Amino acid sequence: MSNLKIAIQKSGRLSENSRKLLEECGIKISNGANVLKTSAGNFPIEVLFLRDDDIPQYVEQKVADIGILGENMVFEKNKDVEIMEQLGFAHCRLSLAIPKEESFSGPGYFNNKKVATSYPRLLRSYFDANNIEAQIEEISGSVEIAPGIGLADAVCDIVSSGSTLMTNGLREVVTVVKSQAVIISNKNLDKSKQEILSKLLFRVRAVKNAKENKYILLNAPEEAIPAICEILPGMKSPTILPLVEKGWCSLHSVVKEDEFWERINQLKKAGAEGILVIPIEKMIL
Ligand code: ATP
Ligand code: MG
Fold it and tell me: In terms of CATH, what superfamily is 4-88+180-210?
């Protein structure tokens, strides 16, 4: 059986999280700082370290079978590949930004303007959709300095916090596309590679579900249990164990990470005490 070849970013904003994800899926790969590829000791996978720009093309051509990269790059390259799973990291957006002192009335602002970007295809389709006649200046990096050096009137660049734009005197005015890291796949994998990919995706989903949820334990008087169960729907129904102290029990359940602060206040109000919230390593639904 041949190995599944996965392309990940060699170095950059995606590389650490991509390696970490494989590790959390129980796939051990060696460091790879100065190598082009490596294989895992305990999973039929070979890892190729590449520039993110090249990954869609290599996956389309089957140089790699699958890859991890940002949706922004997948959309920009527009290759014939399939997005298999969103990975929940490297959240960012491709945005248009203008000098901060300029007023902005809407997309029409960009008519007859020159806009610097590394994403000419996505920007062109945004302008076409809004009937804007603008000039696109394609540059490969440091897009945010283009207006300052007189290369362009505005930029279209990747933003997460917006602080890079701000330090360059720019103001974000339009989100062109939102992005996060994804797994893409070649569309014609043979059966054995599809099976390895299914195994990998199963593990990826278990890791993702675990990150999105917390295990919660609490003590409560028996009469508070119905109200607490309403607050904590859990995976199916919460586990309830008696405590040594009469009339009291311990309740165990699972709560969504982004809901748990709100729930914890409700739980305390309902009579819960000694609340523990614990990370989950893997969660199989
Ligand atoms: P390479 O050398 O591989 O071509 P690069 O310099 O083009 O790397 P990076 O800056 O490492 O690319 O960004 C890789 C991807 O990480 C981007 O395509 C985007 O999906 C995501 N990303 C970029 N900037 C941010 C950010 N500030 N916050 C979160 N994710 C980001
Ligand atoms: Mg790149």
Answer: Periplasmic binding protein-like II (3.40.190.10)
pLDDT at 32: 60
- 3-state DSSP assignment of residue 136: strand
Token pair, residue 141, equals 């990096």
pLDDT tens column, 160-203: 999 999 999 999 999 999 999 999 999 999 999 999 999 999 99
Closest CA to 185 of 55, 2, 21: 55
Residue 180 alpha carbon, nearest atom of ligand 1: 20
12 CB under 6 A from ligand 1?
Answer: yes
What tokens does 127 get?
Answer: 């302008």
Could you tell me the fold of the domain covering 92-179?
D-Maltodextrin-Binding Protein; domain 2 (3.40.190)
3-state secondary structure of 155: strand
